[in-house]
Write a structure and sequence with these properties.
mainly alpha; 3-stranded antiparallel β-sheet; 3 strands; extended
Length: about 160
């Protein structure tokens, strides 16, 4: 509190945004992040909280291949309600990560697409998903080896 948020300073904030990306997409040292990034008053905290939402992550990745209509997104993301999809799309649009295009047709036709910033974030989320699946697979293989080892110990020789 009382400290200047690095994201409101064009030079310092842009430098942090340019440098920050998980999984080694850019070579950075975590110590290069300003302490203000962790300040509860910093605007980046609200955006990070929204990005951490499971529906936001799934919508971003679902839109990576190209524009989709509301119903297509509902069918693509199992368990997502219409209410949560609407809220998620509105917040992503407000954050500048998703664009909404209304076509002048009857019946109305609306498509949602990722903006350039949305594509960048979706790419990072996709890499996170790949890491999670690899980690789960590795954990599953390790668990299988432990079970096999325990079964071998129990079986009579």
């Amino acid at each position: 509190m009382g400290r200047e948020c690095p994201l409101t300073s064009p030079c310092k904030g842009q430098e942090l945004l340019d440098k920050y990306a998980p999984f080694g997409a850019y070579k950075i040292m975590i110590t290069s992040l300003s302490p203000e990034t962790f300040d509860a008053e910093c605007p980046s905290r609200a955006l990070l909280a929204r990005l951490a939402d499971k529906w936001v992550m799934l919508v971003l990745v679902a839109l990576r291949p190209g524009p989709m209509r509301n119903g297509e997104l509902l069918r693509r993301i199992d368990g997502l309600s219409q209410k949560m999809l609407t809220q998620t799309l509105r917040s992503l649009e407000a954050d500048g990560l998703v664009s909404r295009t209304v076509f002048d047709r009857v019946p109305p036709h609306v498509e949602y697409a990722l903006t350039d910033s949305g594509q960048e974030v979706a790419q990072l989320v996709d890499r996170l998903d790949q890491w999670v699946r690899t980690t789960i697979a590795a954990g599953s293989a390790a668990a299988d080896r432990r079970v096999s080892h325990l079964e071998a110990e129990r079986s009579p020789a």
